[in-house]
Amino acid sequence: MNQNCIRNLALVGFLLFATGNGAFSQGFLGKLKEKVEKKVVDKVVGDDKKTDNTSNQSTATEQNSTTSSKSGSTVKNTKGGGLVNTPPDVSQNIKDANDAFTAKNYNDAKYSIRQALLGVEMEIGQKVLKSLPESVSGLDKIAEDDKVVGNSLGLVGLTIQRNYQKGDKQLKVSIGNDAAMLSAVTLYLDNAAYTGQNNDKNVKRTKFKGYRAILKYDESSGYTLSVPFGQSSVMIFEGVNFSDENDLMNAANNFDIEKIKSDLGEK
């Protein structure tokens, strides 16, 4: 993505939120008020004929619905290729935001800005996803499980996932700027009551490539290694049917956390 696109996006976002949209909001509320008042008047004054017609139409609709239901004519869909999940076009949405802002269509401008931000997130997420190894410790990636999810809020909530599997052994890797994921990890790291002398032999502090981390074990779900990094990111490895914690750590060592950190723009 070129620098001009990024600068234009920042400019549009700044202008949009700096100038506000009070006039637009007042106009919108005024129109809404008129519509509500008109509906109230129509309901009070009413048109007997219109009411009778509506009643007759409703009765006919109910009868048709009953007939269709009795006939059992429900058709089950057996064709169709689903939807194609295409990331938003960043450049086009920046242009749309500029055009909408110039025309004082502020809602459309904000929508296009959010779509442009979502497009940026998806590009970053796909870049991180492509940098991950194709196989890990004899486990091959499951391509159809690759996932990048964003919410257009400036990388807050961006999540990247990849699964590796062979037989009954599986490694799931999740990377993201997710507040819920991060807070759960920092709770263990920063509160001595949850680690150390808490008599829980299935949770412990550890280090992963110089970063503080939490390693947990559960008999039903296996091992989980959680590694917070940068200012707001976390990387989580979930290993099923790994022989021991060293087996999981060796698999995790195949991932370049410094490159991932750089791709996400973390410091």
Would you kindly provide a written description of the structure presented here, covering whatever features stand out?
The chain has 267 residues and is an alpha+beta fold. The chain has 8 helices and 9 strands. Strands 1, 2, 3, 4, 5, 6, 7, 8 and 9 form a 9-stranded antiparallel beta sheet that branches. Helix 1 (3-19) packs parallel to helix 4 (90-102) and helix 1 packs antiparallel against helix 5 (106-131). The two termini are 21 Å apart. Residues 9-52 have low confidence and may be disordered.
List keywords for this structure.
2 domains; globular; Protein Transport Mog1p, Chain A; alpha+beta; 267 residues; 49% helix; 9-stranded antiparallel β-sheet
Please bin the fraction of helical residues.
Answer: 40-55%
Q: State the CATH class of the largest domain.
A: Alpha Beta
Which CATH-level-2 architecture of the largest domain? 3-Layer(aba) Sandwich
Q: What's the tally of helices?
A: 8
Count of the domains: 2
- Indicate the structural class: alpha+beta
The CATH topology assignment of the largest domain is Protein Transport Mog1p, Chain A
| Largest sheet entry | 9 strands, antiparallel
Shape: globular
Low-confidence stretches: 9-52
How would you state the average pLDDT, rounded? Answer: 75
State the distance separating the first and last CA atoms: 21 Å
Succession of helices and strands = HHHHHEEEEEHEEEEHH
Radius of gyration, in Å, reads 27 Å
Tally of DSSP β-strands: 9
